[in-house]
């Protein structure tokens, strides 16, 4: 006799009984009108779930989180959950996966593709000096960057939005709504303006290395406009100044958050002794309107 799995819409109370994945992250999403969520049950026990939602900032794709209980993997449950989500939405589905991971292999097996890639992001303290030397070959030279705290109030916020919007314009555009821009401003809540470094060209901000501090600093660095002059030199100066600051403070590492496709940060990052895994941003294309993956209500686990 074949074992059967049943699929249905996720209910708010399901979050309290899911024991795998990160169900806590679902609590604030499950009641939102834009959310589409399904669960898979075997013998009345949830063995898998998939949740898809629209982000506020980027809305050309829907994001998706898929989890299957370790004891139930390899039985097409995740595949069926994803297909059921695809049948209900009309945008591509996006997720993130470590390069070479099982999660990446799963998305690739469904026909997914990488639409952006992030380089290894950790710069350990033992490599701070080498990184500064590498960046010095490109940078504007000593004194090429100032603290973000030296700028007039509100300027860093404006530079952040300008930089973020143009960086994503060609592959994941920012929604042109007040809600999206407010969400971008809220990302600066953990910004360390004093540690942030601004590179000046002809007296004007040309590039910024924004520093967000938690346990260790996370740095987002690029030019403030796509056509900023001396872009490589300006970004290198801002990054080098932040590394020197972190060295003086005594941090054990710096994390960089960026993409290989970033025109100035990407090539500079490739010169640095960064460690850790590469992260891929992956996309599943939207299904044609008449595509049907079979009965939604249930089926054999091994199907």
TrEMBL record:
InterPro entries: Acyl_CoA_acyltransferase (IPR016181), GNAT_dom (IPR000182). CDD domains: NAT_SF. This is GNAT family N-acetyltransferase. SUPFAM superfamilies: Acyl-CoA N-acyltransferases (Nat). Keywords: Transferase. It holds the Pfam family Acetyltransf_1. Residues 1-139 form the N-acetyltransferase domain. It comes from the Bacteria. GO terms for molecular function: acyltransferase activity, transferring groups other than amino-acyl groups.
């Amino acid at each position: 006799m074949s074992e059967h799995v049943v699929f249905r819409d996720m209910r708010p109370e399901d979050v309290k009984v899911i024991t795998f994945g990160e169900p806590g992250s679902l609590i604030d999403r499950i009641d939102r009108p834009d959310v589409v969520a399904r669960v898979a049950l075997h013998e009345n026990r949830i063995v898998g779930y998939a949740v898809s939602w629209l982000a506020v900032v980027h809305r050309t794709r829907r994001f998706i989180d898929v989890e299957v209980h370790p004891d139930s993997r390899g039985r097409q449950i995740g595949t069926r959950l994803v297909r059921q989500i695809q049948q209900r939405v009309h945008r591509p589905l996006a997720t993130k996966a470590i390069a070479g991971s099982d999660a990446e292999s799963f998305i690739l097996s469904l026909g997914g593709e990488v639409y952006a890639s992030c380089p290894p992001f950790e710069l350990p303290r033992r490599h701070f000096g080498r990184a500064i030397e590498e960046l010095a070959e490109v940078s504007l030279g000593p004194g090429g960057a100032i603290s973000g705290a030296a700028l007039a109030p509100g300027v860093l916020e404006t530079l952040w939005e300008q930089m973020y919007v143009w960086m994503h314009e060609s592959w994941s555009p920012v929604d042109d709504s007040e809600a999206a821009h407010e969400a971008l401003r809220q990302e600066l809540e953990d910004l360390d303006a004093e540690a942030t470094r601004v590179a000046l060209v002809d007296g004007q901000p040309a590039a910024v290395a924004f520093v967000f501090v938690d346990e260790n600093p996370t740095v987002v660095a690029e030019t403030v406009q796509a056509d900023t002059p001396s872009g490589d030199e300006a970004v290198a100066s801002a990054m080098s100044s932040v590394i020197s600051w972190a060295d003086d403070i005594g941090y054990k590492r710096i994390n960089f958050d960026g993409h290989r496709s970033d025109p100035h940060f990407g090539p500079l990052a490739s010169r640095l002794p960064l460690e850790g895994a590469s992260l891929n941003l992956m996309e599943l294309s939207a299904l044609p309107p008449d595509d049907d993956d079979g009965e939604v209500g249930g089926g054999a686990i091994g199907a």
